[in-house]
Amino acid sequence: MIREPQQKPPLFLLTGLVIGLLLGLVVAWLVWPLRVTEVGPASLATPYQEQYRLMVELSYAASSDLGRAQARLALLGDNDPVRALSSQAQVALANNATQREARALAGLAEELGTYIFNLQATAAAVNTPDPNEQPGATPIEAVGEGAAYFLDDQELTCESVDAPPYVKIFVFDPNRNPQAGVRLTLNSEEGEAQFTTGQRPEMSPGYAEYPLTPGVAYTLHIQGDQMISGLQASACETEDGEPAWGSWLLLFNAQDSQ
Amino acid sequence: MTRYTLFGITILLGFLLAVYYGWAVRPVSFDSATPAMLRQDFQADYVLMVAEAFQADNNVERSIAALAFLGVEGQSYNPYIFASDTLAFGTLNGYAVPDLERLQILQQALLEFDASFAPTPTP
User: Fold this and answer.
1) ipTM value of the model?
2) Cβ B19–A37 below 8 Å, yes or no?
3) A214 contacts A129 by C-beta, under 8 angstroms
4) How much is the pTM?
5) Three-class SS of residue A90?
6) Across the interface, do A20 and B31 touch by the CB < 8 Å criterion?
7) In this complex, which of B23, B31, B48 lies closest to A34 when CB atoms are compared?
8) For A30-76, how does the pLDDT look when each residue is reduced to its tens digit (9 = 90+)?
9) Which residues pair with A187 in a beta bridge?
10) How far is A74 from chain B (nearest CA, A)?
11) Which of A46, A130, B59, B122 is the least buried, fewest Cβ under 10 Å from its Cβ?
Protein backbone atom coordinates (compact mmCIF):
# COMPACT_ATOMS: atom_id res chain seq x y z
CA MET A 1 0.00 0.00 0.00
CA ILE A 2 1.32 3.41 -0.93
CA ARG A 3 0.72 6.12 1.68
CA GLU A 4 0.21 9.61 0.39
CA PRO A 5 2.60 12.10 1.94
CA GLN A 6 0.78 14.05 4.69
CA GLN A 7 0.36 17.77 3.88
CA LYS A 8 2.08 19.88 6.56
CA PRO A 9 0.33 23.14 7.54
CA PRO A 10 2.33 26.12 6.28
CA LEU A 11 3.60 27.14 9.73
CA PHE A 12 6.31 29.26 8.18
CA LEU A 13 3.63 31.64 6.92
CA LEU A 14 2.30 32.15 10.43
CA THR A 15 5.83 32.65 11.73
CA GLY A 16 6.46 35.26 9.05
CA LEU A 17 3.26 37.10 9.94
CA VAL A 18 4.14 37.18 13.65
CA ILE A 19 7.65 38.42 12.92
CA GLY A 20 6.21 41.14 10.66
CA LEU A 21 3.67 42.19 13.30
CA LEU A 22 6.33 42.45 15.99
CA LEU A 23 8.65 44.44 13.76
CA GLY A 24 5.79 46.74 12.74
CA LEU A 25 4.78 47.44 16.33
CA VAL A 26 8.37 48.17 17.33
CA VAL A 27 8.66 50.65 14.47
CA ALA A 28 5.21 52.27 15.03
CA TRP A 29 5.43 52.61 18.80
CA LEU A 30 9.14 52.81 19.66
CA VAL A 31 11.39 53.65 16.74
CA TRP A 32 9.16 56.02 14.84
CA PRO A 33 6.06 56.86 16.86
CA LEU A 34 3.45 59.04 15.24
CA ARG A 35 3.79 62.68 16.22
CA VAL A 36 0.38 63.66 17.50
CA THR A 37 -0.25 67.36 16.94
CA GLU A 38 -3.20 69.70 17.12
CA VAL A 39 -4.69 68.04 20.16
CA GLY A 40 -7.13 69.53 22.66
CA PRO A 41 -6.45 70.15 26.36
CA ALA A 42 -8.15 66.84 27.22
CA SER A 43 -5.23 64.99 25.59
CA LEU A 44 -2.61 66.69 27.73
CA ALA A 45 -0.67 64.64 30.24
CA THR A 46 -1.95 65.00 33.82
CA PRO A 47 0.67 67.53 35.08
CA TYR A 48 -0.05 69.76 32.09
CA GLN A 49 -3.79 69.45 32.66
CA GLU A 50 -3.23 70.63 36.23
CA GLN A 51 -1.26 73.64 35.02
CA TYR A 52 -3.99 74.40 32.48
CA ARG A 53 -6.66 74.13 35.19
CA LEU A 54 -4.68 76.49 37.40
CA MET A 55 -4.39 79.00 34.58
CA VAL A 56 -8.15 78.84 34.02
CA GLU A 57 -8.61 79.69 37.66
CA LEU A 58 -6.10 82.56 37.66
CA SER A 59 -7.75 84.10 34.61
CA TYR A 60 -11.15 83.65 36.25
CA ALA A 61 -9.88 85.42 39.37
CA ALA A 62 -8.97 88.35 37.12
CA SER A 63 -12.03 88.46 34.88
CA SER A 64 -14.78 86.91 37.06
CA ASP A 65 -16.18 85.42 33.85
CA LEU A 66 -17.60 82.16 35.14
CA GLY A 67 -19.05 81.15 31.76
CA ARG A 68 -15.68 81.42 30.10
CA ALA A 69 -13.98 79.55 32.95
CA GLN A 70 -16.56 76.80 32.72
CA ALA A 71 -16.10 76.50 28.95
CA ARG A 72 -12.34 76.25 29.38
CA LEU A 73 -12.63 73.64 32.09
CA ALA A 74 -14.97 71.65 29.86
CA LEU A 75 -12.11 71.34 27.35
CA LEU A 76 -10.26 69.21 29.88
CA GLY A 77 -13.02 66.63 29.67
CA ASP A 78 -13.31 66.09 33.42
CA ASN A 79 -16.38 64.11 34.40
CA ASP A 80 -16.77 66.33 37.43
CA PRO A 81 -14.90 69.64 37.00
CA VAL A 82 -15.76 70.77 40.53
CA ARG A 83 -14.24 67.64 42.03
CA ALA A 84 -11.15 67.98 39.81
CA LEU A 85 -10.67 71.56 41.02
CA SER A 86 -11.21 70.57 44.65
CA SER A 87 -8.76 67.67 44.43
CA GLN A 88 -6.12 69.90 42.88
CA ALA A 89 -6.78 72.53 45.55
CA GLN A 90 -6.21 69.94 48.29
CA VAL A 91 -2.90 68.88 46.78
CA ALA A 92 -1.83 72.53 46.48
CA LEU A 93 -2.92 73.16 50.07
CA ALA A 94 -0.50 70.52 51.32
CA ASN A 95 2.39 72.51 49.84
CA ASN A 96 3.37 75.75 51.56
CA ALA A 97 4.57 77.24 48.28
CA THR A 98 1.22 76.92 46.56
CA GLN A 99 -1.18 78.30 49.15
CA ARG A 100 -2.28 81.11 46.84
CA GLU A 101 -3.09 78.65 44.07
CA ALA A 102 -4.91 76.39 46.54
CA ARG A 103 -7.15 79.19 47.73
CA ALA A 104 -7.83 80.29 44.18
CA LEU A 105 -8.66 76.77 43.00
CA ALA A 106 -10.93 76.17 45.96
CA GLY A 107 -12.63 79.50 45.29
CA LEU A 108 -13.40 78.60 41.68
CA ALA A 109 -14.54 75.11 42.72
CA GLU A 110 -17.00 76.68 45.15
CA GLU A 111 -18.27 79.25 42.64
CA LEU A 112 -18.65 76.65 39.93
CA GLY A 113 -20.32 74.20 42.28
CA THR A 114 -22.87 76.81 43.35
CA TYR A 115 -23.46 77.83 39.74
CA ILE A 116 -24.02 74.25 38.57
CA PHE A 117 -26.26 73.50 41.55
CA ASN A 118 -28.41 76.57 40.86
CA LEU A 119 -28.56 75.71 37.17
CA GLN A 120 -29.73 72.17 37.92
CA ALA A 121 -32.25 73.37 40.49
CA THR A 122 -33.68 75.90 38.04
CA ALA A 123 -33.84 73.32 35.25
CA ALA A 124 -35.60 70.86 37.55
CA ALA A 125 -38.09 73.49 38.67
CA VAL A 126 -38.89 74.53 35.13
CA ASN A 127 -38.87 71.14 33.47
CA THR A 128 -40.64 69.07 36.10
CA PRO A 129 -44.34 69.74 35.83
CA ASP A 130 -46.53 69.29 38.87
CA PRO A 131 -50.16 68.73 37.92
CA ASN A 132 -51.20 69.38 41.51
CA GLU A 133 -49.76 72.86 41.46
CA GLN A 134 -50.89 73.66 37.94
CA PRO A 135 -54.17 72.02 37.09
CA GLY A 136 -53.66 73.67 33.73
CA ALA A 137 -56.60 72.31 31.82
CA THR A 138 -58.45 75.55 32.47
CA PRO A 139 -60.30 76.35 29.27
CA ILE A 140 -58.81 79.23 27.39
CA GLU A 141 -61.00 82.29 27.17
CA ALA A 142 -61.24 83.72 23.72
CA VAL A 143 -61.23 87.50 23.75
CA GLY A 144 -61.33 88.24 20.05
CA GLU A 145 -64.81 89.65 19.79
CA GLY A 146 -65.45 91.13 16.39
CA ALA A 147 -62.23 89.68 15.03
CA ALA A 148 -61.87 87.99 11.68
CA TYR A 149 -61.43 84.60 13.37
CA PHE A 150 -63.03 82.80 16.31
CA LEU A 151 -61.84 80.00 18.56
CA ASP A 152 -63.80 76.98 17.46
CA ASP A 153 -62.22 74.30 19.62
CA GLN A 154 -59.47 73.79 22.16
CA GLU A 155 -57.85 70.76 23.69
CA LEU A 156 -54.92 70.07 25.99
CA THR A 157 -53.04 67.12 24.53
CA CYS A 158 -50.67 65.15 26.72
CA GLU A 159 -48.24 63.31 24.48
CA SER A 160 -45.12 62.28 26.38
CA VAL A 161 -43.04 63.08 29.43
CA ASP A 162 -40.14 64.34 27.31
CA ALA A 163 -42.14 66.56 24.97
CA PRO A 164 -41.87 70.30 25.70
CA PRO A 165 -45.08 72.31 25.86
CA TYR A 166 -46.32 73.79 22.59
CA VAL A 167 -49.22 75.77 21.30
CA LYS A 168 -50.43 74.06 18.14
CA ILE A 169 -52.73 76.13 16.00
CA PHE A 170 -54.96 75.18 13.08
CA VAL A 171 -56.60 77.97 11.10
CA PHE A 172 -59.45 77.35 8.66
CA ASP A 173 -61.23 79.62 6.22
CA PRO A 174 -65.05 80.01 6.27
CA ASN A 175 -65.37 76.90 4.08
CA ARG A 176 -63.36 74.85 6.57
CA ASN A 177 -60.34 74.67 4.33
CA PRO A 178 -56.91 75.01 5.98
CA GLN A 179 -55.60 78.52 5.53
CA ALA A 180 -51.88 79.05 4.89
CA GLY A 181 -49.97 82.28 5.43
CA VAL A 182 -52.08 83.53 8.34
CA ARG A 183 -49.96 85.81 10.50
CA LEU A 184 -49.79 84.83 14.17
CA THR A 185 -48.18 86.78 16.98
CA LEU A 186 -47.40 85.65 20.52
CA ASN A 187 -46.60 88.37 23.03
CA SER A 188 -45.16 87.68 26.45
CA GLU A 189 -42.70 89.07 28.95
CA GLU A 190 -40.03 87.35 26.84
CA GLY A 191 -40.90 89.53 23.86
CA GLU A 192 -42.83 89.11 20.64
CA ALA A 193 -42.75 86.08 18.35
CA GLN A 194 -44.22 86.21 14.86
CA PHE A 195 -44.92 83.18 12.71
CA THR A 196 -47.36 82.07 10.06
CA THR A 197 -49.42 79.01 9.30
CA GLY A 198 -48.16 76.68 6.61
CA GLN A 199 -44.58 76.32 7.76
CA ARG A 200 -45.16 72.63 8.41
CA PRO A 201 -47.22 71.65 5.36
CA GLU A 202 -46.81 67.96 6.22
CA MET A 203 -49.15 68.66 9.17
CA SER A 204 -51.56 70.96 7.34
CA PRO A 205 -51.29 74.15 5.29
CA GLY A 206 -53.22 75.86 8.08
CA TYR A 207 -51.00 74.61 10.89
CA ALA A 208 -48.45 76.43 13.04
CA GLU A 209 -46.79 75.68 16.33
CA TYR A 210 -44.65 77.47 18.86
CA PRO A 211 -42.88 76.24 22.03
CA LEU A 212 -44.13 77.70 25.32
CA THR A 213 -41.95 78.51 28.30
CA PRO A 214 -43.53 77.19 31.52
CA GLY A 215 -44.63 79.98 33.83
CA VAL A 216 -44.89 82.56 31.04
CA ALA A 217 -48.29 83.95 29.98
CA TYR A 218 -48.82 84.63 26.28
CA THR A 219 -51.28 86.70 24.30
CA LEU A 220 -52.13 85.39 20.84
CA HIS A 221 -53.00 87.64 17.91
CA ILE A 222 -54.24 86.41 14.56
CA GLN A 223 -53.78 88.84 11.67
CA GLY A 224 -53.37 91.57 14.28
CA ASP A 225 -56.56 90.80 16.20
CA GLN A 226 -56.10 89.75 19.80
CA MET A 227 -57.65 86.30 20.16
CA ILE A 228 -56.45 84.83 23.44
CA SER A 229 -54.77 86.15 26.53
CA GLY A 230 -53.29 84.29 29.47
CA LEU A 231 -52.19 81.33 27.37
CA GLN A 232 -49.80 79.26 29.49
CA ALA A 233 -48.01 75.92 29.40
CA SER A 234 -50.15 73.52 31.36
CA ALA A 235 -49.27 70.37 33.21
CA CYS A 236 -51.12 67.15 32.53
CA GLU A 237 -50.82 63.42 33.00
CA THR A 238 -49.91 60.98 30.27
CA GLU A 239 -51.83 57.73 29.74
CA ASP A 240 -49.31 56.07 32.07
CA GLY A 241 -50.12 58.57 34.80
CA GLU A 242 -46.77 60.37 34.49
CA PRO A 243 -46.70 64.16 34.90
CA ALA A 244 -45.85 65.98 31.68
CA TRP A 245 -46.26 69.28 29.91
CA GLY A 246 -49.30 69.33 27.66
CA SER A 247 -49.63 71.10 24.33
CA TRP A 248 -52.56 73.38 23.60
CA LEU A 249 -54.35 72.46 20.41
CA LEU A 250 -56.36 75.45 19.19
CA LEU A 251 -58.69 75.48 16.19
CA PHE A 252 -59.64 78.84 14.70
CA ASN A 253 -62.15 79.45 11.99
CA ALA A 254 -62.47 82.55 9.89
CA GLN A 255 -65.73 84.41 10.39
CA ASP A 256 -68.19 84.00 7.59
CA SER A 257 -68.29 87.38 5.95
CA GLN A 258 -71.84 86.88 4.60
CA MET B 1 6.74 31.00 -5.75
CA THR B 2 9.38 29.67 -3.38
CA ARG B 3 8.91 29.20 0.37
CA TYR B 4 11.35 32.05 1.01
CA THR B 5 9.39 34.45 -1.15
CA LEU B 6 6.14 33.55 0.63
CA PHE B 7 7.88 33.91 3.98
CA GLY B 8 9.07 37.40 3.01
CA ILE B 9 5.62 38.41 1.82
CA THR B 10 3.98 37.37 5.13
CA ILE B 11 6.60 39.32 7.10
CA LEU B 12 5.86 42.39 4.98
CA LEU B 13 2.11 41.91 5.40
CA GLY B 14 2.45 41.62 9.19
CA PHE B 15 4.70 44.66 9.26
CA LEU B 16 2.23 46.77 7.31
CA LEU B 17 -0.69 45.66 9.47
CA ALA B 18 1.19 46.47 12.67
CA VAL B 19 2.32 49.88 11.43
CA TYR B 20 -1.27 50.73 10.47
CA TYR B 21 -2.43 49.64 13.93
CA GLY B 22 0.35 51.53 15.70
CA TRP B 23 -0.13 54.77 13.80
CA ALA B 24 -3.80 54.95 12.84
CA VAL B 25 -5.75 52.73 15.24
CA ARG B 26 -3.84 53.15 18.46
CA PRO B 27 -1.13 55.79 18.19
CA VAL B 28 1.20 55.95 21.13
CA SER B 29 0.80 58.55 23.90
CA PHE B 30 -2.35 60.18 22.60
CA ASP B 31 -3.42 60.99 26.16
CA SER B 32 -0.04 62.27 27.25
CA ALA B 33 0.40 65.13 24.87
CA THR B 34 2.56 68.12 25.69
CA PRO B 35 1.26 71.69 25.46
CA ALA B 36 3.36 72.28 22.34
CA MET B 37 1.08 69.77 20.60
CA LEU B 38 -2.05 71.81 21.37
CA ARG B 39 -4.00 73.11 18.42
CA GLN B 40 -3.28 76.75 17.65
CA ASP B 41 -6.59 78.08 18.98
CA PHE B 42 -6.10 76.27 22.30
CA GLN B 43 -2.56 77.63 22.57
CA ALA B 44 -3.89 81.11 21.80
CA ASP B 45 -6.57 80.74 24.46
CA TYR B 46 -3.93 79.73 26.99
CA VAL B 47 -1.93 82.87 26.21
CA LEU B 48 -5.13 84.88 26.59
CA MET B 49 -5.60 83.35 30.05
CA VAL B 50 -2.07 84.46 30.94
CA ALA B 51 -2.91 87.95 29.69
CA GLU B 52 -6.09 87.98 31.80
CA ALA B 53 -4.17 86.91 34.88
CA PHE B 54 -1.50 89.52 34.16
CA GLN B 55 -4.18 92.18 34.06
CA ALA B 56 -4.98 91.35 37.68
CA ASP B 57 -1.54 90.91 39.22
CA ASN B 58 0.79 92.84 36.86
CA ASN B 59 3.44 90.27 37.60
CA VAL B 60 5.51 89.87 34.42
CA GLU B 61 7.77 87.19 35.84
CA ARG B 62 4.77 85.06 36.72
CA SER B 63 3.42 85.54 33.19
CA ILE B 64 6.76 84.53 31.67
CA ALA B 65 6.79 81.41 33.85
CA ALA B 66 3.22 80.62 32.83
CA LEU B 67 4.08 81.00 29.13
CA ALA B 68 6.87 78.47 29.55
CA PHE B 69 4.00 75.96 29.54
CA LEU B 70 3.80 76.30 25.76
CA GLY B 71 7.52 75.87 25.17
CA VAL B 72 9.13 72.69 23.95
CA GLU B 73 10.88 70.81 26.77
CA GLY B 74 14.63 71.29 26.73
CA GLN B 75 14.48 74.23 24.35
CA SER B 76 14.55 77.93 25.09
CA TYR B 77 11.41 79.90 24.44
CA ASN B 78 10.52 83.50 23.81
CA PRO B 79 7.36 84.56 25.69
CA TYR B 80 7.07 87.66 23.52
CA ILE B 81 6.66 85.47 20.42
CA PHE B 82 3.80 83.59 22.09
CA ALA B 83 2.06 86.87 22.92
CA SER B 84 2.58 88.42 19.49
CA ASP B 85 1.54 85.23 17.67
CA THR B 86 -1.62 85.10 19.76
CA LEU B 87 -2.34 88.74 19.09
CA ALA B 88 -2.05 88.08 15.36
CA PHE B 89 -4.21 84.96 15.66
CA GLY B 90 -6.81 86.82 17.71
CA THR B 91 -6.93 89.71 15.24
CA LEU B 92 -7.46 87.28 12.36
CA ASN B 93 -10.06 85.23 14.18
CA GLY B 94 -12.25 87.96 15.57
CA TYR B 95 -11.27 88.03 19.24
CA ALA B 96 -13.17 90.63 21.23
CA VAL B 97 -11.51 94.03 21.48
CA PRO B 98 -10.96 93.80 25.29
CA ASP B 99 -9.15 90.47 24.77
CA LEU B 100 -6.93 91.96 22.07
CA GLU B 101 -6.17 94.86 24.40
CA ARG B 102 -5.17 92.44 27.18
CA LEU B 103 -2.81 90.67 24.78
CA GLN B 104 -1.33 93.98 23.67
CA ILE B 105 -0.74 94.99 27.30
CA LEU B 106 0.98 91.68 28.02
CA GLN B 107 3.09 91.97 24.88
CA GLN B 108 4.15 95.49 25.83
CA ALA B 109 4.94 94.47 29.41
CA LEU B 110 7.11 91.60 28.20
CA LEU B 111 9.07 93.94 25.98
CA GLU B 112 9.52 96.48 28.77
CA PHE B 113 10.65 93.72 31.12
CA ASP B 114 13.31 92.47 28.71
CA ALA B 115 13.98 94.23 25.43
CA SER B 116 15.87 91.20 24.17
CA PHE B 117 12.52 89.45 23.75
CA ALA B 118 11.95 91.59 20.67
CA PRO B 119 12.48 89.51 17.56
CA THR B 120 15.60 90.44 15.66
CA PRO B 121 14.84 91.54 12.09
CA THR B 122 15.99 89.11 9.48
CA PRO B 123 18.47 90.59 6.99
Assistant:
1) 0.79
2) no
3) yes
4) 0.54
5) helix
6) no
7) B23
8) 888 877 777 889 888 889 999 999 899 888 888 888 888 888 888 88
9) A192, A219
10) 13
11) B122
